[in-house]
C-alpha cells in the first residue's frame, strides 16, 4: 500500500485511529454483556462508554507505552484507563488480546469487503453500459492472437461482466468467511468469560460468533479471503490485458482515454500508451502474491502463535487498498474507453475472407465430403491467403475440387457476417437477463 | 503426481482412457441434440453411440496421429472415425476442440471433487470420533509454544473438525464454480451450433451451461478451484504440524501409529518419527504451489490462448491426486493416533501451577487491585516458577502483597482444573450439534 | 513431469534404476574409504563393488521390502545384501540414510544442471545465428505495445542472447550451490564415521564436502537452485511472449514454423497459431511455481525433518524435466522461426513518420525552443497522425511554429532510418564480442 | 513496509527526496558527458550542477505537475528547470525516462544491498561469538523433532553461520546482477545519445553499463535479486524456527531475552513467549512472497511495458526494508539469547541412554551380527525405553542375545558422550577456519 495506489476511504479503515476505536467498541460492548451477567457493575459499563467513547486516543502515547510493555493491547488498555479512571479495571475481564485483535481484524475486513463489493458493482455497471452500447459492434474474435471468427465487442464486455459477477459472488462468500467474532479468552475455552459475551459483541458488530476458536480466529478463514482477492486480481489482469492488446499500434481497436496535457513519453511526443491497464497488470501481480503468506499463515502452532501478525499488518491494508484502487481504476478505464469500430472492421478484413473458413468446411462435410478431405481443401486455399495475400472467396471459387462439391452460390452465402451474430441476444439474456 | 503419493481411483480420472471416453460422450451427446434439431440424421447419432460406444480407443494410435496433426482432438476424431465409419463426418459439427477439452476437464474436476468431498467426510468422521473419545482428556493449551491454560484434547480435535467443515463447504462452492459445460463453437458465438446442444450435453453430464464462453470456459473458475485446494492443503498442514509437535520427544502427548516391522532410521534403531505428518506438510506445500499457475492462467489473450493447457495437464492430476492422498493419509493418522493422557497431565504440571496465573490476576482485580498492580504481583511470582522451578501456589501464599488482597482459601480455589473445562459442552454443541 | 513435456535423457536421471545405482556407488565408495581407514576389511570393499556392481536391482522387490520397513534406504540395503552376501554388513557403517539420499540428490541435480547448461548453449547458438542473420533487418521498437522508434530484429535477438547468457551464469552458480556431498552420519557429527570418508566420496562423485551438515544437506542450497530455475523459466516466458506478439494476425512479423500436415484448429482450417510459444508460457508458469515449496523447505525443524522429501520427489524431476523440454522447444522455435522483414517495414510505416517524433523534438530544443514548447509542437502534429491518419512530415512542414524554428531540410533530415541503426555494431560487440 | 518493521537508514533510500537527488545526479552526470562530446555547452553542464545541485526539490510541487502530465520524470524535469533556468533545455537530451528510472533503481538497490550485506556481517559476527561460546555445550541433536544423537549447541550455530555465509555470497552475486546503468535512449538503440554517456554515468555511480538494454534494464536481473532476498528470508525463518522450538515450555533450552517491564500476555502474567522469532517467521513469509511478482515482471512486452513499475514501487522498499529489519532483529535475538545448558542435558537424558542406540547397533555388526538382526535386537530394547520408561543400558545388559554377542564392558563403553563431540573441532575449522 503506497499513496500512489491508494484511495482514502479504504486507507481510513487501516488507520491507528480506526483500529483503536474498534478496539474500544469491542471492549465496551463486552463490558455491557459482562454487566448484564453481573460480572461487573452496570455503572462501570456506562462510565466506560461515556468516558472512553469521548476519549481521543493519542497514537503516539500508546506507542510510547508499547515500547516498554512490548504488547500493543496492554498499551492501549493502559492508555484507555487514563480516560476511564478506576472503573478501567473492569475492562478486558477474562478476555485475551487476541479477542480484541482478531475481532477488530474481522470488522476491518468486512468493512473493506463492503467497499470492494461496491467497487465491483461500479465496474459491473460500467461493463453493462458499454456492453449494450457495443452489442452489435462487429469485431474479430481471436484465439492464440490469431483471427478466428467474427463476434461483437459487446460480447467481449459481456464476458467480462459475467466474470466479475462471479468475482462478486466469491467475495460475498469470502466476506462471510472472515465475519466472525471471538471473545473466548485464553486458548478459547471461555474459562474466564461467558460465551454470552461473545454472542453479544458479535451481534453488535454485525459478525457471527466463531464456533470454536483457539484464542485466535482460525486462519483458514483469512487464507480463503486473501486467495479470493488474488483471483479477483487475476480477473482484473485479464481485462486489462485485453485492452492493452486492443490498443497496440497495429490493432488500435480501442484506447485508454488520453487526457489533454497528458504526456506519453519524455522522449517521444507521439506516444499514447495503455499505461493504466499496464499499471493494473502490475497491481494484479501484487494482490495475487499476498495469497501465499496468507496460506502459509494457516499452520499456526498449537492453539496459536503470533507469526501471522506481521503478515497481516502488511497484507491486510496492502491487499484491500491495492484491490480497491485497481477496481476503481479499471472502472474508469472501461467508462472512458475509446472504441474504434471502423478499425475493428478493417482489421477483420485484413486477410480477406479467412474468418469464414469453418463455415466452408462445415458446408463441405454437409455436402458429403469427409471431414479430413474437407479440412484439406479449405486449408490449402486458406494458406494462400495467409502467405500470398489472396482473397479467400476467389480462391475457393477457383478450386475445382471445392466447386464440384459445393455450388458457387452456396459458397458465397458462407461469407455472410450476420450469421455469426445471430445468438448475441441469447448470450446477453443469459448474462444480463435482458438483451 | 507420483505413484508414491497417488491412489488409484483418483489417478483413473486422469488416464487417457477416461479422457477419451469422456470426449466420446461429449461428442455423442452433442450428436443426439444435433439430430433432434435436424442438423444431422437421427440414424447417424445412433450409429455413433453404437459403434463409438463399443470402441476400445487405442491411446498409442491416437498419439501417432497427433504427431502429424499436432492437434489432440483432431487425432482423436480421426481415430474415432475408423470405428464409426462414414457417419463420423457428422461428429463435431460446428464444435471446436475447446468445447470438448474444457467440458471434459469440467467432468474430470467434478469427479475429482466428489472423491475429495468423500475424503473430507471420512476425515470429519475420524475427527469427530476421536474428539468425543477425548472430550474430557485434559491437556495444556499452548500459545507461542508456551503453556497457556488448560483445555482438552477433544477441543483441539473439535477445532480441526470445524476447520475441515469449512473446507468442505469451500470445496462445494469450488466444485460448483467449475461444473460448467461449453459447447459454443469458435469464439463462443454459437454461430455454427445451436445453444440447445450445449444445454443438452450439460444436462447429460451433470453440468450447467456456461453463460458466456469465449471458445474456452473462463479460467477464473479454475483459479478459484485450485486456490481452494491450496487452502484445504494449508489446513492439512495445520493439523499435521500439531501432531508433529505433540510427538516431539519432550512432549510425547500423541504419536503416529508405529507398525510392527517399521524402522524409523537406518542408523538409529530407537527412532519413532512422525514421518506421515511431516510428509503431509510437504504435500501441502505442493498443493498450495499449484494455486499460482492457476491464477496466472486467468489472463488468457483475447478470446483464448492455449498457455493454460500445459499448466492444467500438470496441475489437474497433480493437485487432485496429491490432495486426495493427503486427506486419506491424514484420516488414517487421526484414526490410529496414539494418545497419551498421562503425559498430557505430566507436561501441564511441569511448571507447577503456572497455568492458573490468569485466574489469580482476575481475582486480584475483582478484589480491588488495579489491573497494572495485579499483573505485576502475579508476574513476579510466576517468574520464580519459570526461573527457579518454584511452586506457583506456594509462592503466592508467601507473598504478603498478594495475601493481603486475597484470602488463602480464595487463592487455592483458583487452582481448580475443572474451572477450565466447564464450557467444553458448549463448544461441542456449537461444532457438532451435540455434546 | 508428464511424458508430453519430457525428454528421455533428463527423465533417465530420475528413474529408480539410476537412483539405486547412485546409492550403490555412494555406499561402495564409502566402503573403499572405510577399508582404507581399516574400519572394514579391504576384501569386503572389493566384494561389494564386484557383486553389487554386477547386480541388477529389482525395483519391484525393493518396493515390496519398503512396504514393511517403511524406509526406502533400509529396503535398498536389504535388497543389496542379497547380492553381496555376508560382507553386506560392512555397508553403510556409521552412515545415515540422509547421507545416501542427499548426496544422491546432489548427483542427480548436477547431472540435470549439465543437461540444462547444454540446453542453454544450444539456445545461445541459435539466438546468435539468427541475430547475425537479422542484424540489419529494420523493425519498429515498441514500448507499451505502441510504436516507439526503429531498431533491428537482430538487436531484439541480441537482447535475448544477453539474457540467456546471464541465465547460464546463474545456473553455473546454482549448480555449484547444490554440488555438495554429506557423509557425516546422524545429526552430522561424524561420531561414527571419519570425515575422510566424506572427502573421498565427494571427490569420486565430483562434489565438494558439505562443510557442516545436520544429517541433511541444508535446504537453502536447493531453494537457491529451484528459484534460479524459476528465473530462467521467466526469461523463456519473455522470449516466448515476444514471438506470440510478433505472430499476431495484425503484426505477423515472425511466425513459428508450421509443418506440412499440421492443423491449427479442429474447426477453422485457416488457423496458424503460435502454439509452441503459448505452450512455453504455460511451462514457465509451472517451473516458476516450484520455487515456492523449495523456499518453504528451508526451515526444517532442528537438525532435520523429512517434510522436504515429498516436495523434492516431485519438483526434482518436474522442474528439471520441464525446463529441459522448454529450453529445447524454444531453441527449435528460434532455429526455424519464419521472419517477415517486409511486414516489419510495412508495420513501421503504418503511422507515417511517427517514429521520428523524438528527433524532431531534440532538433527543436537544439534550435533554442524550450523543451516544454518543443514537446507541445511535436505532440500536436503527432496526434493528427494517430487520429486522422495524416503524414507526420507533411504536418510538420505545414506547421508555421515548427518551420520558423527549423528549416525544412533539417526537418526532412530527421526522417532518416539509418540514424537509428548506427550503433547496432556497438551493441553486437558488447553482446557477442564481435559485430 | 510499515513503520513497525522499518529502520530509518533503509527507509531513507526509498524516500522521494533520495530518488529525486539520484535522478538529478544521473541527469547531471549525463550532461557532463554530453558536454565533453560537444553535444551541449560545457557551461550548461556546469550551471546544471550548480543550480540543480543546490536545489531543494519540492515533492508536493512535483506531484502537482505529475497530476497534469501523468508522467513522473517529465514532472521532475519541469520542476528542475525552474531552478536551472534556460540551460535546463540541455538536460535529458536524447535520453528517455527509463534511463533515469532504471539507473536510479539500480543505485537504490545497490545501496540497499550494501546495508543488507552489513546486516549479514553483523549476524555472522553474533553467530560466531555465540558458536564459540557454546562450542562444547552438549545438547541432543533431533531429527523429526525426535531425539537422535548428541551434538553441541555450538555446532547448531556453526550451521547457521555457514548458511548465512552462503546467503552473503548469494547477495553479492545478486547485487552484481542489478548494478547496471542504462543510458541508451528510446528502445535502447543509442540513436540520440552516444554510448559514451552511459559509460560515464555508470562509472560515476559505481555501476556497469548494461550491454544491451531495450529502453529498460532487463527484468531478469531484478527477478534474480528479489528471489535471492526470498532465499535469505527462508534462512532467517529456519533459524527463527529453531529458537521457537528451543523455547517451548517442555524444551526450554534457550529463550529470547525478556526485558524488565515486558509483558507476555494481556491475560496470563506468567507468559514469556518467543515473539521476536515468531515475528521473524511472518516477515520471512512476506519477503519470500515478493519473489513471485518479481519473476512475473520479467516477461515485459516487446522492448518494454510499464507493468513492472507498480510492482517495483511496492516491493523495492517492502522487500529491502523488511529484510533489513528482520536481519537486524535476528542479530539482536542471537546476541542476547538466553541459553540453558542444564536443561539441554536434562532433556537429552529424558529417555535414558536412548541416544546411544546406533553405537550399539554398529558394535553388534562389527561383532559379526548381521545388520538386520542387530537392528532388531537394539530396536526391541529401545522400544521398552520409549514405552515403559526403562533404562536403555540396563535393558541391553539384561538381553541375553545382546550380551552373547557383546561383552558388558563393550556395551557400557558405547554410552560415552565424548565420542559424539570428537569432530567438533573439525567442523569448526571447516566453517570458521579456526577451532
Automatic annotation (TrEMBL), chains A, B, C, D:
It catalyses: N(6)-(1,2-dicarboxyethyl)-AMP = fumarate + AMP; (2S)-2-[5-amino-1-(5-phospho-beta-D-ribosyl)imidazole-4-carboxamido]succinate = 5-amino-1-(5-phospho-beta-D-ribosyl)imidazole-4-carboxamide + fumarate. Keywords: Lyase, Purine biosynthesis. Residues 352-432 form the Adenylosuccinate lyase C-terminal domain. The keyword Methyltransferase does not apply. Pathway: Purine metabolism; AMP biosynthesis via de novo pathway; AMP from IMP: step 2/2; Purine metabolism; IMP biosynthesis via de novo pathway; 5-amino-1-(5-phospho-D-ribosyl)imidazole-4-carboxamide from 5-amino-1-(5-phospho-D-ribosyl)imidazole-4-carboxylate: step 2/2. It holds the Pfam family Lyase_1. It comes from the Bacteria. Its EC number is 4.3.2.2. SMART domains: ADSL_C. InterPro entries: AdenyloSucc_lyase_C, Fumarase/histidase_N, Fumarate_lyase_CS, Fumarate_lyase_fam, Fumarate_lyase_N, L-Aspartase-like, Pur_lyase. PROSITE patterns: FUMARATE_LYASES (PS00163). GO terms for molecular function: lyase activity. Belongs to the lyase 1 family. Adenylosuccinate lyase subfamily. This is Adenylosuccinate lyase. It comes from Mesorhizobium ventifaucium. The gene is purB.
